[in-house]
Design a protein that fits this description.
The protein is of the alpha+beta class and about 60 residues long. The protein contains 2 helices and 3 strands; from the N terminus they run E-E-E-H-H. It has a 3-stranded antiparallel β-sheet, covered by helices on one side. The longest helix has 11 residues. InterPro entries: MbtH-like_dom, MbtH-like_sf, MLP_fam.
Length: about 60
């Protein structure tokens, strides 16, 4: 299977950080689906469009840790 045939899910954690996860693989603890599945580049484009501030949510919102 080539990279262009692999399917991924875009996942997000509680801090609003995004990542790619192989489609169909059990979800890692602390992550949930963000609503995009597709080829790697499609998912990376989605992340690029939606994750505009790389700081964790706690820093963006000024929440004390």
């Amino acid at each position: 299977m080539t990279d262009s045939q692999l399917q991924f899910d875009v996942v997000i954690n509680a801090q609003g950080q995004y990542s790619l996860w192989p489609a169909g693989k059990p979800m890692a603890s602390g992550w949930s689906e963000a609503g995009q599945r597709g080829e790697r580049q499609v998912c990376l484009d989605y992340i690029n469009e939606h994750w505009t501030d790389m700081r964790p949510r706690s820093l963006r919102e000024g929440v004390p840790q």
